[in-house]
Amino acid sequence: MSDDTDHPAPQEESLFEAPPMAEQERMCEAILFATAEPISAKEIEARMPHGCDAAEALVHLRKRYEGRGVHLVKVGDAWAMRTAPDLGFLMQKETVETRKLSRAAIETLAIIAYHQPVTRAEIEEIRGVSVSRGTVDQLLEMEWIRFGRRKMTPGRPVTFVVTQHFLDHFGLENARDLPGLKELRAAGLLENRPPPGEMPQMGEGDEDLNEETEEGQTELFED
Amino acid sequence: MSDDTDHPAPQEESLFEAPPMAEQERMCEAILFATAEPISAKEIEARMPHGCDAAEALVHLRKRYEGRGVHLVKVGDAWAMRTAPDLGFLMQKETVETRKLSRAAIETLAIIAYHQPVTRAEIEEIRGVSVSRGTVDQLLEMEWIRFGRRKMTPGRPVTFVVTQHFLDHFGLENARDLPGLKELRAAGLLENRPPPGEMPQMGEGDEDLNEETEEGQTELFED
Amino acid sequence: MSEDTFEEMGQIESVTDRMAAEALIVDVDGYEGPLDLLLTLSRTQKVDLRKISVLQLAEQYLAFVERAKALRLELAADYLVMAAWLAFLKSRLLLPPDPTEEGPSGEELAAHLAFQLERLQAMREASARLMGRDQLGRDFFARGLPEDVTRIRRVQYTATLLDLMQGYARIRTRDEFRPYAFDREALFTLEQALERMRGLIGFAGTWTDIASYLPDGFTADPARRRSATASTFAAALELTKEGKVELRQSEVFAPLELRRKG
């Protein structure tokens, strides 16, 4: 008992050496198989024995599952096991009937994904109509979008960004992997070009709504 | 539809050749991963393309997962993927909650520290109340106290002493280093003013001390 | 049967055209605003949106609005706003630029409208591509049999040396041990002041110096007087806030006077 405390840390470390990498890989595999939601390397590591390097083990594991019926995919800064998309046809039984999204909701989602962080006014400017509260609520409820930082423009409007859940759902590692993003940017179509004067402003009707949502949201912002 | 039943099986097989075994293995893997319940080879096969042999694919798959973090196990006559039993500890998340020792435990510990070696009867006499078994057990379990020598008095009662662990925790070299009451008061750590009407038990030395502190406080207060 | 009729008539082209024209009118509610309608109209030009003729588009839009009016269809205000603006744009595009005129030129406005249409079109295509991707729960799947992570809560008890010493002192002094604290005898608390004043304001019909509310025994000793004055003043503010009394002061450093309200 007293011996342990008398000696400095180095000895302790040698007592609890990190398991070999193959074993660490097994551990990551077990943890990932057990969870349905994406889980960060940090969280995985926290559950592994002291001294493990989850990030490295995950790289090995990902390679091991290449071409298999189940893949290790990266979702934002988290990881998850997912069945290979080409085998979807086997899973009719597992298919969950998703709520059919309205055209407005789909377009709003796409605009948020490609233009994020984007304010409600900017979405309205792009779609040319006001965005109904229900549309945004639906996307928030599905956890496909969330509030981002406030914009440093007059009124400090809230912005919307897509979530990890969104990335997971559409099999994206990163919001930068959105299809056609580069081309759209190159074509200048993701720019926020202010209209020259004397143009009718699109979808202005929702001022009060903005104010309403603005309150109480500050807590939701990271940093 | 009606065509299928009119023609005999052989022709159909040649039309839809079963995928290679590696592919069948992938399919089983994906189905097993995604299903919420154990699933029989027959059910798996029913979901695979015509001509597949799920039973054989499962044998290969089981082999593939041998020694991995996840195993393919048979549950009754169904199959399921399960994390390897030796990794069960990863499925636990330990949270340590630190709580303050109860007043009874602190007082008992204090008496043991100041009076060691001390018997239970002596502790009770000093505290004026009986010492519950749970309190002593808790301190023993924390390894802050241990049994000392038996006292050479009638009944040869066991005594309690504090441990090295205790000294380490409190940063003491020796139990004799514990400051005495007088020192505590002199250090200004303790105030010793009893509520009115309960003076009789006070030690003599307390009177002047009170005056002392009172003076000091008045000064502080006037500034 | 009906297919045969179409073929016989040999007018498929004109029928679909007619149906499209009707759809435009009947489905006016189906459009998501003027921009959406403009985008639909632009398709009849069958050119790259970058090369679109905004003038032609403006004319198409205005014709559409005229037709809708002829059919006595209710058009939302923003459709009419857009119609007015496009009429204005049309005149700007047709007339030679007036150098004295302020603001953006007709070409600039037209270019921005074309940009808006192109951007909306691009977002429509992007959303179609997004929804066309493999989706979780449809094309690929998560673990069907997730295992729960059991949370083990371990309680660790702790104490400090001070706890220990205080515990011992408590026993040795028969429980009459308190941690070091200020002597509170010279204190007159806000609660005490409030309680005292609540009892007394009933009598304060006329303006009275709040100094007269200091309790007995708190006026001679400076420390006690200071504490009582502060608390009484705070209590007076509190009662003013509650609307029970009024406070006044004739000049800086003059006595504060208090009177019952109502």
How would you describe the overall organization of this protein?
The complex is a heterotrimer, with two copies of chain A (223 residues) and one copy of chain C (262 residues). With 223 residues, chain A is mainly α. Chain A is 42% helix and 10% strand. Among the domains of chain A are: 21-86, Winged helix-like DNA-binding domain superfamily/Winged helix DNA-binding domain (Arc Repressor Mutant, subunit A, Orthogonal Bundle); 103-187, Orthogonal Bundle (Arc Repressor Mutant, subunit A). Chain A has eleven helices and six strands. In chain A, strand 2 (70-75) and strand 3 (78-83) form a beta hairpin. By secondary structure, chain C is mainly alpha-helical. Among the domains of chain C are: 18-96 and 105-131, no CATH class; 190-260, Structural maintenance of chromosome 1. Chain E (Arc Repressor Mutant, subunit A), CATH 1.10.10.580. Chain C has helices at 2-9, 12-26, 34-42, 54-70, 77-94, 106-131, 161-172, 190-200, 222-241; strands spanning 150-158, 178-179, 208-209, 245-249, 256-260. The longest helix of chain C is centred in the middle third of the chain and has 26 residues, at 106-131. Chain C is elongated and about 105 Å long. The termini of chain C are far apart. The model of chain C is unreliable at 1-12 and 175-181 (pLDDT under 50). Chains in contact: A-B, A-C, B-C. At the B-C interface, helix 3, strand 3, strand 4, helix 6 and strand 8 of B face strand 1, helix 7 and strand 2 of C.
